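Lecture 7, part B: from sequences to assemblies.

Below are the input chains for today's worked example.
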Amino acid sequence: MGGERITPVILCGGAGTRLWPASRDELPKPFLPLVDGVSTFAGTIARVADPALFAPPIVIGNRGHGRLIAAALGEAGSDGAVLLEPLARDTAPAIAAAAAYAAREAPDGLLLVLAADHLIRDVAGFRATVARAAPAARVGRIVVFGIPPAAPVTGYGYIRPGAPLAGFDGVAEVAAFVEKPDAATAARYVAEGYFWNSGNFMLSAATALAEIDAFAPAIAAAARAAVEDAEAAGDGLLLAADAFARAPKVSIDYAVMEKTKRAAVVAARYDWSDLGAWSAIFEASAKDGAGNAAGGRTLLLDTRASYVASDGPLVATLGITDMAVVAANGAVLVAPLARASEVKRVAEAAAGHGRAVRAEWGSHETLLAEPGQRITRIAVAPKAHAAWRAASHAGLTVVAGTGTIAIGGAARPCEPGGVVAIAPEEFLTVENSGEGPLVLIAAATGPLGL
Amino acid sequence: MGGERITPVILCGGAGTRLWPASRDELPKPFLPLVDGVSTFAGTIARVADPALFAPPIVIGNRGHGRLIAAALGEAGSDGAVLLEPLARDTAPAIAAAAAYAAREAPDGLLLVLAADHLIRDVAGFRATVARAAPAARVGRIVVFGIPPAAPVTGYGYIRPGAPLAGFDGVAEVAAFVEKPDAATAARYVAEGYFWNSGNFMLSAATALAEIDAFAPAIAAAARAAVEDAEAAGDGLLLAADAFARAPKVSIDYAVMEKTKRAAVVAARYDWSDLGAWSAIFEASAKDGAGNAAGGRTLLLDTRASYVASDGPLVATLGITDMAVVAANGAVLVAPLARASEVKRVAEAAAGHGRAVRAEWGSHETLLAEPGQRITRIAVAPKAHAAWRAASHAGLTVVAGTGTIAIGGAARPCEPGGVVAIAPEEFLTVENSGEGPLVLIAAATGPLGL
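Predicted structure of the full complex, as structure tokens:
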């Protein structure tokens, strides 16, 4: 491939609302073992793990996911850097921060910007594409990985390729980035050789900063300051909140790609899925003889061409075809696979029905309610405290976080594994003194009284 | 209505396997609030509560359901008698025992034998039918309540009516009881004025004992002895197990109805459903504007003519029609309503997949498993003990039963509301000293080590 090693920049921001109920704020799409039993974030790390080609990655994600990111890097034996965003500002500020961070060590180094929530199994094809893109990136081009369309899908932005880039085999000018088309337009795009915009691309740190400086100077300044004033947090480097908050919330496509003259495109010659909906996950999954993909505790009778998954409950289907049935996080989705792209509507509507009941101090969620047994998960927000009078006998077990629990005024410290017994009428105060949520499981003989 | 009050005999034996996953051994069909938010058992008690017409009922059911039966009677303010079967022997022995019990007080008293798992909303029509049946029952007839068929259903036994019973308005001889027919035969039965056999009937205690003596003497003898030697249990009178076990396991239809010359039929002029499958429950339930019946935490988008119910998880449906989606007891069913009668297959198959993992000492079941949090329900059988080495920090809360918990040899008594903290590597023994299961909820930070 020639030249120095490439630094992968892995963007962990994808929420995956169309993958409700599996994806959620605390465990979003990149960290879910959606296909082949591994998360796409772990798959992305593995794809760029060859130290002959790649430097350790720079991972950028939400500060709330620092532990998940660090755990996956640790499991992969990667000593990548972790940049934690104090708040979400879309891709342009994230990439600007990563570029500013990388430029401190190697201003001319190549960055390979990758989404953490895409599935690519053909690692050889991926590396071959990276090898084709690198020379153009070294001379200042922004080389976007364009996916040859498998179908006239309306859900992606498209890239119209221009003239071949002389001297760079397999790389072409970008004639235009175009918005998500309607069905007829998508068909024309496919016929005319357009690519899907995968959102993955390669460029040098210097090019990144120069173009963001040119087209989005406020983002560049905010990102530089946020990196400059970043502080070590438990699981990575926490970008300075005041500075990062000044960056407008804008995507890299809008901030730079659609304006720059340096954009080029390389045809991605590998299998690719953004696992954007349950239908995509179904397509990417192994099938049984009836064409079903099933995971977890499932029981399929007279079921065909369906995706059935569970993270706990036994899910039984009888006499269905072309359906998605997903039980996860204490919720269940039932929809035809053909309508999987509309699941975002469900996620939005479900937010109102929230599994967890929000309170001023955090939230609580009933995991099981039946005569004589009620299990509740209680999450107290950092620096907050909850107080209530017990209505039943209950045991509280701390499963995450640190703080104090006081019963009738007598306080004791608590940490994971600690338990407390409470009796009816006792007055309880739970205080979170830590940085993350303080999570308690209450197993009660009746209503808790919360 | 004339004459003495009628004693209802309520049979609580129905398991309702086609109502999987809602029905289960511990909480079977008669006790589930399936329609209108009340159980059919409670509805049956209420239907025969008028003290001007009815004596307190005799309820007969499984000994494991004594508490449920007593609670429902108590809630209704009924001082009915409860006969508890030490083992299930089908309807003939149950009715024989109830008749023997009733005959001790009033050998000529009328018994109204009712299933506890049927839905009847038209109480006036029900009472009018009872009033038509009573005179014939008083002169020694067994008057079966025949349901005028709403459709040529193949799932019921049918009754072919014979000549009108002279002097008894609305009552006819039974020409024949016929087995569940095929579709063509069912259509002919409906055209020819047959009735569905509801399994409900009226007769005197003396007639019941005489006919069972005549056609099933072993049942009569066993039932009499079981009542004779019955012992007071917590929630009722426990039939003597040795005696009751000698009764062959036979239905009253097979043991008596198909053989007796005394059978008569009265047309039941009221709404009736045996709630035999989710489709029947859907039909009996109130519908929204899109023709859906929904209960519990549900979210229906573009959903039509479907039954959606949940006892806890948020169940979201998108773009489905004519479906049953039921989340209950930690399991989920998805099937077209048209195939609801096949759900028995699911229940049978699910038994193999058992939600709970059976162990020598009882069972355990994972209620929630995600990174850093694992909730397990542990049920230790009466007089049994479980022992294991803890693999994570965990809190154990007792939610039912009594016994002792020993950690590293130091034992302490436990009862509902008690909690114990366990740390990795600690050795744990849980011993059940009570009569019922000892149920613990373990909230752990990782695998329990069970």
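Note for the exam: The CA atoms of residues 298 and 315 of chain B lie 5 Å apart. Keep this in mind when comparing with the next example.
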